[in-house]
Design brief:
Length: 826
């Protein structure tokens, strides 16, 4: 066995026995003084090997023994507090880390309240005021990495940062002022500075040091929300120490680099807040954002996009820090692109809080000020595209603050991105926020940064242009003439304004999807109205785009309600529904026909469905529709814009040509023959017709065709007859006719005259639409039943219109008389 370890162990065992059993104050004093030899605090010091063995193996045991003996009677064994002072010296002069852990252990394990608890708390307060916390942390700067060392550091870290909470839980109302968080964390900051100074001195002396423990302490304190207390002490002192001192700067860089990832956000946000400017932040952080992915995410994403709590000076420090080094400026350019993209996102404009939109706008302006001409020009097209999209979305907003942000940023950004073009100007009301944002856009003083500063920004909104150059390019004096010249208007010809229309705003949508978005999500009633008025034309102009959203568009239009006093609202809505049905006939017609029997529709909506189906079928069956649809497509380069009037000179020329032109043709009309083409309704008639017949006899909660809703039943019968007539000579006409005659036969005795009129019209439609040969071959029984019913109605029905309709239908049957003769009479 090592003789040094054996000798120290024997001495400690003897001392523990005396301390545990003796009641003699003098004997206790002599024992404690003999133990102090191992602390190196007496004239007769123990050899260094023995001191090291004592500190490493036995010191904590001695301290726990002293804590166990602490009592009023034990301290009174010697007068004038001699024993208490000697007892406390072991905690204040021995190895600091062990003393701190035993103090915390004894406080957490003491009964509350008690004499021992308060004495240990007071001793811990003396421990802190004596600067022993710096010794605790400094002891970890030279520790070798190992399992035992990591466990010790974790234990120390938890107790160093959690000391105010732990002491507050134990002492409750008796907590000493030194343990209040507002007092403890500034003290901890001072202790960290003392340790950093010791580290710098060691590095100058050629010794290696590790500051990982200090980084962990800093990170954990910031995670606990104590950035202001600890960094409020650290940053001002480090600002001075790093001024022109490369060694201190490198120590600061390493201090932040070693902060754990989970604490990096709290530390960086605290540093940005506490730093007086980007220059200080650059000295404290160096190129941290290029070395640490976590730091880069926090500085270029989290603080810019996911949070908006940073003040304007913090934003200036953060973005100025990115601008102060060539390696970091690449991140600044990328941040500008992403800021513009977010600023211009229509979804963000609708859903993001206004405060966050202001925050992003300020960050945009600061980025533009820091970036140079060459950097902006390298990404000019991409930035301008994002800017224009964002300006459009913001100017379309119904909120004045959102529009104002769009105007301010558009003015500044356009001047920086396109300085050679004419300046963009808007009119808006100035307030404190506007003036603040315009101040952010002002060019920086040349002394702010050694790097290239951006070019001066053109004057922006709120500044009145020079009155001498408002309307033209020259001075106002040059435009002034004599009073007689200005007042003489005898020879002026009045301008013809008879063909002028109302000037529309720029909010008219250009695409079908824009109309859909405006009708569903926009709170801007002017844009809503413009979308409704432009929708029909856009549907006919862009059939492919319409088919992509046809069902959604039909649903929106079917449920659309008049929000403003739009002239001709019902007509605009109906024409748009007809247009979308014609464009995507099969899907939309089937959707509307099935919705006719769905729940939660009003009678008005159900009749609207019938009207739209009839009108769409009429349009699809119109001869030459394909040719006209092609002509309604996008105009060619030489085509006349819609609604434009022919110039007077052109009309004169055309009239002269017409008069001098001789035409040789046969007598008759000189007009163009009607265009011919296939019946487009042929292939989709079934989607219009059969779903309407499927559930007429099944009542639902709010809709009963065979009950009180006989008006809708009458409209249904008329609509089915119209669809049958429009399907003339189509392949599906025979099954349609058979189904329609069965529908008529089931309702032939209905009591409402309007319903019977619809049924009679439906019979006539069948007779007109199905070829006679097919009627006789496929529907002989149905024709006999219809003939007998028509004869009865023509003679006995109380309604005159019903009798007339029955007679007309019988006349159509008479045309088939020769072929019907073989059939037995009714």
């Amino acid at each position: 066995m090592d003789p040094v370890a054996s000798a120290v162990r024997l001495a400690v065992q003897e001392a523990l026995h005396i301390l545990s059993s003796s009641e003699d104050g003098g004997h206790i004093i002599s024992t404690l003084q003999s133990l102090r030899r191992y602390l190196g605090e007496t004239e007769t010091q123990a050899p260094a090997e023995e001191q090291e063995e004592f500190s490493r193996t036995h010191f904590s045991t001695i301290l726990r023994c002293l804590v166990g003996k602490l009592s009023p009677d034990w301290l009174d064994l010697l007068p004038d507090g001699q024993l208490e002072e000697l007892w406390a010296s072991f905690f204040l002069e021995g190895p600091a880390d062990q003393a701190f852990l035993v103090l915390m252990e004894s406080i957490e394990g003491a009964a509350s309240p008690s004499f021992r608890l308060m004495k240990m708390a007071q001793l811990l307060a003396r421990f802190l005021s004596a600067g022993r916390m710096a010794a605790v942390m400094e002891g970890q700067c030279g520790q070798q990495a190992g399992p035992a060392s990591r466990l010790l550091q974790e234990t120390l870290l938890t107790r160093v940062v959690g000391l105010p909470d732990r002491l507050g839980n134990r002492l409750q109302q008796e907590t000493l002022a030194a343990f209040f968080p507002q007092n403890y964390f500034p003290l901890l900051g001072e202790e960290v500075l003392r340790v950093l100074q010791a580290v710098v001195d060691s590095l100058r002396g050629g010794l290696d040091c590790s500051i990982s423990f200090l980084s962990q302490v800093l990170g954990k304190a910031c995670v606990h929300g104590r950035q202001q207390e600890i960094l409020g002490v650290l940053v001002p002192r480090l600002t001075v120490l790093t001024q022109g001192n490369c060694l201190w700067q490198r120590v600061c860089w390493r201090l932040v680099e070693r902060v754990p990832d989970q604490a990096m956000e709290a530390v960086l946000k605290g540093l940005v807040e506490a730093s007086p400017g980007p220059e200080v932040l650059s000295r404290l952080l160096g190129n941290l954002v290029t070395k640490s992915k976590k730091a880069q995410f926090v500085m270029t994403r989290k603080l810019l996009f996911l949070q908006y709590s940073c003040s304007t000076p913090m934003l200036q420090s953060l973005l100025g820090y990115l601008a102060m080094d060539s390696q970091r400026r690449l991140l600044l350019v990328q941040a500008l692109k992403e800021l513009l993209e977010t600023w211009g996102s229509s979804s963000a404009i609708r859903h993001a809080p206004l405060e966050q939109q202001r925050y992003v706008s300020k960050a945009l302006l600061i980025c533009l000020v820091h970036l140079g001409e060459a950097e902006l020009q390298a990404s000019r097209d991409e930035l301008l595209a994002s800017l224009m999209e964002g300006v459009k979305s913001r100017l379309d907003s119904s909120l004045p603050p959102v529009r104002r942000l769009g105007m301010i940023v558009a003015e500044v950004a356009s001047a920086r991105l396109h300085p050679e073009g004419p300046p963009l100007k808007f009119q808006y009301e100035e307030d404190d926020l506007t003036r603040e944002m315009l101040a952010l856009a002002a060019p920086r003083p040349a002394a702010d940064s050694p790097l290239e500063a951006g070019p001066p920004v053109a004057p922006v909104g709120g500044e009145s242009p020079d009155q001498e150059t408002v309307d033209g390019g020259g001075p106002q004096a040059g435009r002034e003439g004599s009073d007689s010249e200005l007042d003489s208007d005898d020879e002026l010809v009045p301008y013809d304004m008879s063909g002028d229309g109302e000037q529309r705003s720029s909010k008219t949508p250009a695409y079908v999807r824009d109309c859909l978005e405006a009708l569903t999500a926009s709170e801007d009633w002017e844009r809503w109205e413009a979308a409704l008025q432009a929708l029909e034309g856009l549907i006919l102009k862009s059939p492919a785009a319409t088919r992509e959203v046809s069902l959604e568009l039909a649903k929106v239009l079917l449920h659309l309600e008049e929000k403003t006093a739009v002239a001709g609202f019902e007509g605009l809505r109906q024409r748009a529904l007809v247009a979308v049905t014609v464009t995507d006939a099969a899907r939309v017609a089937e959707y509307l026909a099935t919705q006719f029997y769905a729940l939660n529709y009003s009678l008005r909506q159900r009749m609207d469905i019938l009207d739209v189906l009839a009108l769409a079928a009429q349009e699809l069956s119109r001869p030459g529709r394909l040719g006209r649809a092609a002509q309604r497509g996008p105009p060619g380069p030489s085509s006349q814009p819609s609604g434009a009037t022919v110039p007077a000179w052109q009309a004169v020329v055309e009239e002269r040509v017409r008069r001098k032109t001789r035409r040789f043709c046969k007598q008759g009309s000189t007009g163009r023959a009607a265009a011919a083409g296939p019946n487009e309704f042929n292939v989709v008639a079934g989607y219009f017709f059969f779903p309407l017949l499927q559930r007429f006899d099944r009542p639902v909660v709010t809709f009963d065709l065979l009950g009180d809703d006989q008006l809708v039943l009458g409209r249904l019968a008329h609509t089915l007859g119209a669809l049958m007539y429009l399907a003339v000579n189509t392949a599906v006409a025979v099954p349609m006719g058979k189904a329609l005659l069965e529908f008529v036969w089931a309702l032939r005795f209905h009591g409402d005259a309007y319903v019977r009129q619809g049924l009679l019209s439906a019979v006539s439609s069948v007779l007109l639409s199905v070829p006679a040969e097919r009627l006789l071959a496929d529907l002989p029984d149905e024709l006999l039943e219809a003939r007998s019913w028509l004869a009865d109605v023509a003679e006995q029905d109380a309604d005159e219109d019903c009798r007339l309709l029955a007679v007309k239908a019988l006349l159509l049957l008479e045309k088939l008389r020769d072929r019907l003769l073989p059939l037995s009479s009714p």
